[in-house]
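Priority: medium. Attachment 1 of 2:
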């Protein structure tokens, strides 16, 4: 692959449109991303795991500008209001003006926090996403959802705030642990499963290359997932309709993550199992075929994702957690199901008995 010509796509949102660059050597290619800066002030937000590995590559490109860095500790617990306040204090200290830019260098935790801090400073300044996990490259860096957690729950506070650019340098994946990498693949497979059957078929033929982290396969997978997501976001930026489809597997997945106290399963792992449960429920409701379920299961297994509910979890408990996940009407749930690969739909009024039976069959 040519280091100097990344794969490029555009997220089309009128005056707020932005480029996404995917490829190798992009963090150090400041000439490219500096074009997206409007002013002289830059705050780079990262964490204590990522900064020692990659902060230099970015800050070497900030010569001549007034810049500072702000590091948070590693982990979901640090996607907090307290750290937004600290980030804003760092912007104040820098003397950041309205044309300042925040750079988010890290996974989804850093991206969500940095984006929300940028949305708050002077009612909204620019930010650039430099995602360093596969999950953040294929999911959280694009689409403009930003926010932080409260003690009362995850992602309860936030804003829609689109980045000025997304710089996905796949060289950073070299240090990403395998389990985190595979969790990112779950969100890739999800995009194909929802609305892009040709991409799903491509994933089936490239599953081994992806599991082996082949550069060309990784770039193409990221680009195809983001092209799909960018289309959805362009049509439904604030999730009035279609964007909800991106939650395929998430109601089951969140229940599994919660039942595992957020320590047993990574989000992507919960989504993998959750998508398969959604496929089985769809099959039970005669919306889709067993062959589609089998294709999904095989692809998830080939890339090394879990497909079974972890031992010790209880169907009634999972159903109770799913009830809390969304505003459902009594006795029924609103879920993302599918009519087969690439044909996800929002289905209201799904009977709890069918959901329970699906969970019980998976646990038995
Ligand atoms: P994360 O940011 O916690 O990163 C996972 C782990 O990998 C962390 O320990 C991190 O320090 C480490 N890491 C990051 N880059 C690395 C690298 N290159 N080498 C080695 N280690 C590295 O988790 P994530 O999975 O990237 O993101 C999850 C977060 O994203 C959650 O907070 C979730 O709510 C959010 N999210 C947001 C959206 C959105 O649309 N805004 C979408 C999906 C998820
Ligand atoms: Mg997700």
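Attachment 2 of 2:
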């Amino acid at each position: 692959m040519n280091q100097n010509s990344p794969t490029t796509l555009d997220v089309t949102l009128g005056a707020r449109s932005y480029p996404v660059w995917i490829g190798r050597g992009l963090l150090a290619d400041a000439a490219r991303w500096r074009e997206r800066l409007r002013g002289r002030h830059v705050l780079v937000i990262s964490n204590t795991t990522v900064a020692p590995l990659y902060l230099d590559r970015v800050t070497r490109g900030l010569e001549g500008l007034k810049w500072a860095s702000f590091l948070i500790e590693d982990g979901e617990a640090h996607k907090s209001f307290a750290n937004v306040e600290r980030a804003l204090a760092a912007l104040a200290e820098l003397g950041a003006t309205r044309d300042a830019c925040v750079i988010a260098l890290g996974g989804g935790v850093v991206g969500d926090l940095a984006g929300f801090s940028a949305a708050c400073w002077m009612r909204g300044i620019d930010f650039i996403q430099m995602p360093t996990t596969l999950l953040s490259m294929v999911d959280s860096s694009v689409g403009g959802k930003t926010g932080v957690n409260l003690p009362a729950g995850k992602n309860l506070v936030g804003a829609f705030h689109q980045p000025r650019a997304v710089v996905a340098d796949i060289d950073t994946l070299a240090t990403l642990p395998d389990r985190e990498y595979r969790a990112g693949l779950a969100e890739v497979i999800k995009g194909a499963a929802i609305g892009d059957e040709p991409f799903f078929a491509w994933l089936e033929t490239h599953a081994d290359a992806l599991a082996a982290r082949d550069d060309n396969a990784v770039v193409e997978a990221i680009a195809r997932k983001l092209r799909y997501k960018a289309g959805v976001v362009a049509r439904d930026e604030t999730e009035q309709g279609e964007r909800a489809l991106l939650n395929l597997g998430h109601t089951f997945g969140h229940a599994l993550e919660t039942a595992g106290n957020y320590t047993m399963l990574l989000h992507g792992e919960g989504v993998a199992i959750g998508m398969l449960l959604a496929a089985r429920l769809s099959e039970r409701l005669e919306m889709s075929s067993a062959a589609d379920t089998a294709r999904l299961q095989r692809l998830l297994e080939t890339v090394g994702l879990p497909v079974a509910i972890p031992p010790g979890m209880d169907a009634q408990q999972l159903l109770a957690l799913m009830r809390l996940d969304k505003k459902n009407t009594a006795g029924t749930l609103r879920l993302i199901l599918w009519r087969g690969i690439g044909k996800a739909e929002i289905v209201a009024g799904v009977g709890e008995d069918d959901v329970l039976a699906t969970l019980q069959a998976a646990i038995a």
